[in-house]
Design brief:
Length: 483
């Protein structure tokens, strides 16, 4: 900068001109468009040109809206509110996560908005109106201009105009839909909304949004592959850490750290880290106990990447060796996992795969003497769960679609057989307190399936080799162990 100043002053330009040139090095009079969230011009490391959210293009968002409108009856209107901000204390909010349906339709990751879909006007977004104080404390928030320019809404208004504009939109509708879980008084308390709801009946929009979200596009599947890959790498590093730090809280922190440094925005749910008998508690989340030598640890984890989540589970002995009782139960679970994955194909259903898993686990548990009979009531004492669920923007995705639905290419499910034997269960003592689950993510393809979590070892010999041959003092290539 000093060199530039000397060069300019040697040619004796005016002081005013020098100052103008120097100031341009630091300031621009052009206003930089700010959508209140990452966009290609501000975050080129995250988004490509033409994308509204990382990996999902503007064209795909438009096609999503068109698909939902195709499902909606004629002359109907759908109202979807953004997720509310939930407060931890008076001035401290919980970390915000957008409502999945609102995100799916708009691409907007911010609170305060309401979207309206109709055959007559397409997508209309009512946007929050931040005050200067809001911007000072929270940063820029997307407004009406961003709704049109970036989110490609057909119409947009400030949220303060909702009470005037929405009544005209819904006054002649035959049916009124809204997202029940994010309903807000801003629109539900309007007399026009109440009247339209009374006349046409009020319906839950999720029966259509879940239908649209059920089959994933190629762009969505790419994000889910990335999310699964992050989860696998994070859990693998945590498995290695467990031998020197067999503590539930440390393993929970480790897996979250490993997910976040690989790009995940958040965990999909609080990690389940159950050591010993805690592994038999299906959604154990305290994560405050030490894992004793010779015990297993069950870890169920998932992370979220740009709106799409992963969900995977592995169970292993941090000490590096499965006991005989552990091996017996584990072999049954891993065999069930692999055979159920083989069943994943178009035309099958989660319910049919579940029924197969119950029969196999019942036979195996009875053979080991853990179950005394074949009655389902006895089986449900050691496994009250389903073999799996749909996966996507939510952990239990598309809950309006039943498990008896025939699977189609593009649907993502989990396969997660488990055995959870309480410490006081009436069986041989060596089995009491054992909890084992093995969970993989599976995409249904035209010819069968693709396992998104296949890089994470689950065979006993692979796990023991990994744990007992890893050098904790150096960063070794684990590919030497065949993973």
């Amino acid at each position: 900068m000093q060199h530039l100043h000397r060069k300019l002053t040697s040619n004796r330009p005016s002081i005013k001109l020098v100052n103008q040139i120097l100031l341009r090095q630091f300031y621009s009079t052009d206003k930089c468009f700010d959508a209140g969230q990452p966009i290609p011009s501000t975050h080129p490391q995250l988004l490509k040109e033409g994308e509204i959210t990382p990996g999902i293009s503007c064209d795909e968002y438009v096609s999503r809206r068109r698909r939902i409108l195709e499902l909606l009856p004629e002359q109907s209107v759908a109202v979807v509110a953004a997720a509310p901000v939930k407060m931890m204390t008076d001035v401290v909010p919980y970390t915000f996560r957008q409502d999945s349906d609102y995100l799916y339709i708009t691409g907007c990751q911010q609170p305060g908005g309401i979207a309206v879909l109709s055959h007559d006007f397409g997508l209309c977004m009512f946007m929050p109106e931040p005050t200067p104080q809001d911007i000072t404390w929270q940063g820029q928030i997307a407004g009406v201009d961003a709704a049109i320019e970036f989110f490609k809404a057909d119409q947009s208004y400030p949220i303060s105009k909702l009470h005037k504009v929405l009544p005209n939109m819904i006054k002649n509708c035959s049916k009124l839909y809204h997202n029940v879980k994010t309903a807000v008084p801003t629109y539900t308390e309007l007399e026009a909304f109440k009247k339209a709801a009374y006349n046409g009946g009020l319906h839950d929009l999720s029966i259509y949004t879940h239908e649209a979200r059920w089959i994933k596009s190629s762009a969505e599947l790419n994000l889910m592959r990335q999310s699964a890959s992050i989860g696998c790498q994070a859990l693998l590093q945590t498995m290695l850490q467990s031998k020197i730090s067999p503590y539930e809280n440390i393993l929970s922190a480790k897996v979250e750290y490993e997910c976040r440094i690989r790009g995940a925005q958040r965990m999909a749910f609080n990690p389940v880290v159950g050591g010993g008998p805690n592994g038999s508690v299906i959604h154990y989340s305290r994560n405050d106990q030490n894992v004793k030598d010779g015990e297993l640890v069950l870890m169920d984890i998932g992370c979220e990447l740009h709106g799409y989540v992963s969900d995977l589970t592995r169970t292993w002995p941090p000490c590096g060796t499965f006991s005989d009782a552990h091996r017996q139960v584990y072999d049954l679970v891993v065999e069930t996992n692999k055979e159920c994955i083989q069943l994943c194909k178009p035309g099958m259903s989660i319910q049919r795969i579940h029924n197969y898993s119950v029969e196999k686990l019942c036979r195996g548990l009875k053979g080991m003497g853990i179950l005394k009979n074949d009655r389902l009531q006895s089986y449900h004492q050691v496994n009250p769960t389903s073999i799996g669920h749909y996966l996507g923007m939510d952990v239990h995705d598309c809950s309006k679609i039943g498990y008896e639905r025939t699977l189609k290419p593009g649907v993502v499910i989990t396969i997660e057989p488990g055995i959870y034997i309480p410490s006081n269960f009436d069986c041989a003592q060596r089995y009491q307190g054992i909890g084992i689950r093995i969970e993989d993510e599976v995409v249904i393809t035209e010819s069968g399936y693709e396992v998104l979590t296949g890089s994470l070892p689950k065979e006993i010999n692979h796990i023991e080799t990994l744990l007992n041959n890893h050098s904790y003092g150096e960063n070794r290539d684990i590919s030497a162990f065949g993973f």
